[in-house]
Write a structure and sequence with these properties.
Layout lengths: L4 E5 L5 H11 L5 E4 L1 H18 L3 E7 L3 H11 L4 E7 L4 H18 L5 E5 L7 H6 L6 H14 L4 E3 L5 H8 L4 E4 L18 H7 L3 E4 L1 H4 L4 H13 L1
Parallel strand pairs: 1-2, 1-8, 2-3, 3-4, 4-5, 5-6, 6-7, 7-8
Length: 236
Amino acid sequence: MSSPQLVVALDVPDPARSAALVERLAPLGVIFKIGYEAYYGHGQSIKNALRAAGASYALDLKLHDIPRTVEAAVHAIVEPGVRLITVHALGGAAMLEAAVQAAHEQAATCSMPVPDVYAVTVLTSLAVEDLGELGLSGGPGENAIRLAALARDARCAGVVCSVREVPDLKAFFGTEFGTFCPGIRPAGSAHGDQKRAATPREAREAGADYVVVGRPIVDDRDPVGAARAILEELAA
């Protein structure tokens, strides 16, 4: 079993702090996740820092719109350094297919590797009762499987899901179908707004491909030490 790839979520409001985190953490071989806060707050600044460090990153923008709009958005955001982008599986098959096609087209234009498109299934902040309020029948696992099938058929490289869904997803779709897992918290850490969190060890044992850690690293007084501890747990 290979170790999952550690993804550090740069969910901080200060561009200088984001740049400092990239500079300190990039030598560890992690990749970075740019979410809403960083992308819309100081997107170009953080991309410049990532480029200077030679670091790869995931654009976690969870695109969700009509196919033509998502296609245009993917063309706009794919550039050298982007390793993975996220879209919402609930956008439907045509939207997912448009995103994958646009990623291939833009990568060819930029003469770069094609970034993987990962489809968000069920947010890790949602529990069973929340799904009922949204009109979705069944639990998180059942919905994740259903949406993952849609993503696989649309040629997505994998899905965003909780660690709890990983074993079933791998069993249904094979080990090559990727899993990008947020909500990773070292033992003893506060879960915050994550309702389906897991430890790095649990993520490794489940077979996750990417594990996303934000606050336990970026808010630590020693982010390098915190990241190294998680890397050691992932490789144990």
